[in-house]
Amino acid sequence: MKSLRFPFSRPVSLLVLSSAMAFGAAAQAQDFKVGFVNTDRIFREANAAKAAQSKLESEFSKREKELVDQGNSLKSASEKFERDAPTLPESQRVTRQRQLVDQDREFQRKRREFQEDLSARKNEELAQVLERANKVVKQVAETDKFDVVLQEAVYINPKYDITEKVIKALNAASSGNGK
Questions:
Q1: pTM of the entire predicted model
Q2: Angle at 151 between CA 149 and CA 154, to 5 degrees
Q3: Cα–chain-centroid distance for residue 143?
Q4: Over the stretch 87-109, which tens digit does the pLDDT of each residue have?
Q5: 148: which strand partners?
Q6: How far apart are CA 112 and CA 131, in angstroms?
Q7: Rounded Cα gap, residues 114 and 172, in angstroms
Q8: 112, 4, 134: which is closest to 63 by C-alpha?
Q9: 175 SS3 class
Q10: Closest CA to 169 of 149, 154, 147, 152
Q11: Distance CA 130, CA 43 (A)
Q12: C-alpha closest to that of 169 among 70, 27, 35, 24
C-alpha cells in the first residue's frame, strides 16, 4: 500500500521545526544575562589603578626631573653656542659642536631608556590591576548570575554596563586587603 504524500508536507514540516526552534531560542534568550565592563574606566577610576599610578610617579619622578634638567642644560648650552659661534675660532667651534652633539646623543639615549623603563613598569602595574579587576568581575558575574561579561565592544547599551559595580567591589577589596 502506498502512502499518500502531499507536495507541501516537507516544506511545512521544516517551517514548523524552524518556528519551534526560534521560539525555543527566544525563550532561552530571555534567561541569558549579559554584562559589560569598561576596562579603561577601571584604569582611570579604581583606587588600585590610582595607587599604581602614584607608585609609578614616585618611582620615576627623580629620573624624570634629571632628564628635564639635562634637557634644559643642553638647550642653554646650544643657545650659548649659537650666540658665541660666529666669534669662536674654527677649532673651538668644531670642538664645542662635537660636545653638543655628544651631549644630545647621551640625552636622547637616557630619554629613550627612561621611556622604555616607564612603559615596562606601567605595563606590570596595569597587569596587576587588571588581574585583580578580572577576579572581581568574575565574583560579580557569579554573584549576579551573568552568563557572559564583555570587556570590549563597539557599542553597548548602558543598562548592561556593570563597571561601576566592579569599581566599587574592587575598591572595597583593595581597602579590605590594606592595599
A1: 0.69
A2: 110
A3: 26
A4: 989 999 999 999 999 999 999 99
A5: 34
A6: 28
A7: 34
A8: 112
A9: helix
A10: 149
A11: 8
A12: 35
